Amino acid sequence: MKIGEASRVSGVSARSLRHYEDEGLIVPGRFSNEFRDYCQSTIDRVLVIRSLLESGLPVRLIREILPGHTDGSDTGTDRVCAEFLHEVQGYRDRLAARIAVLRDQQAALDAYLRQARRTDL
Fold first, then answer.
1. What is 1-55's CATH topology?
2. Has residue 35 got a pLDDT over 60?
């Protein structure tokens, strides 16, 4: 299918599809006129990519896991998965630390606002 139909079927913009290709996340086929040709397996891969991006994972991590995860080979899969899970855990821990800082900042602002409202009375 051409990029317009692939966009409609996947719910991902044509621009995003081109970006995924530029990032090496997908490799669509080509028609004889050099238009992109998206097969169902590429669309399935796009849906996985979209889900991983929405979960907050950076493209670098997604690029590392997808080849071993979707090419059908089991070569080194356990090692790749263990390394990937370690990196995802690290990413999640950094995210949790940032959330904790933001919660502290929010609490400080809430306290300030409560105090400011009391002095207005």
1. Multidrug-efflux Transporter Regulator; Chain: A; Domain 2 (1.10.1660)
2. yes
